[in-house]
Amino acid sequence: MDLSLSTRTVGDRTVGEVGGEIDVYTAPKLREQLVELVNDGNYHLVVDMERVDFLDSTGLGVLVGGLKRVRAHEGSLRLVCNQERILKIFRITGLTKVFPIHTSVDDAVSATD
C-alpha cells in the first residue's frame, strides 16, 4: 500500500493528513513533507494519522525527527490517532510521553499542551 499526504491550515496550525502505511518504503515521503513544511515556516504541526493502516520504527523515527525540527523553532507537533493498534505502538515505545496524542483534529488544534 502507498502513502497519501495532504496538508491544510486550521487556525494557526498546519494539519498534515496521512493515510496508508508509514514504513521503510514510504517514510521518506513523509520526512520530505515535514521538512518542507518546517522550511516554509510552519512550526505548529498536527499530523492526522486517522487513516494510517500501519506504522513501523522507520515511521516513528520520521515523526521524532519532525518533532525535533519544529522544536528547534519553538514549535509543536501533535498527533491525531484513535486506532488502538497504532496507539499501542506509541505506548510500547514510551512515545506517548513525547507526543501529545489527540482523538480528533479539532482537539489537537484547540489544545494548549
Instruction: Kindly provide the radius of gyration, computed on alpha-carbon positions and rounded to a whole number of angstroms.
Output: 13 Å
Helix and strand element order: EEHEHEHEH
- Share of helix among residues? 25-40%
pLDDT < 50 stretches: none
Distance between the termini: 33 Å
Going by helix content, strand content and strand pairing, the class is: alpha/beta
Which sequence of strands runs across the widest sheet? 1-2-3-4-5
| Silhouette | globular
Number of strands: 5
Strand composition percent: 25-35%
How does the major sheet shape up?
5 strands, mixed
Whole-number average pLDDT? 95
Protein name: Anti-sigma factor antagonist
Pfam family, one: STAS
Family: Belongs to the anti-sigma-factor antagonist family.
InterPro entries: Anti-sigma_ant, STAS_dom, STAS_dom_sf
Topology diagram in text:
Layout: E1 3-10, E2 13-22, H1 27-39, E3 44-55, H2 57-71, E4 76-80, H3 84-93, E5 101-102, H4 105-110
Parallel strand pairs: 2-3, 3-4, 4-5
Antiparallel strand pairs: 1-2
Write up what this structure looks like.
- By secondary structure, the protein is of the alpha/beta class.
- The chain has helices at 27-39, 57-71, 84-93, 105-110, and strands at 3-10, 13-22, 44-55, 76-80, 101-102.
- Helix 1 packs parallel to helix 2.
- The model has no long low-confidence stretch (mean pLDDT 95).
Notable features of this structure?
113 residues, alpha/beta, 5 strands, single chain, five-stranded mixed beta sheet, 4 helices
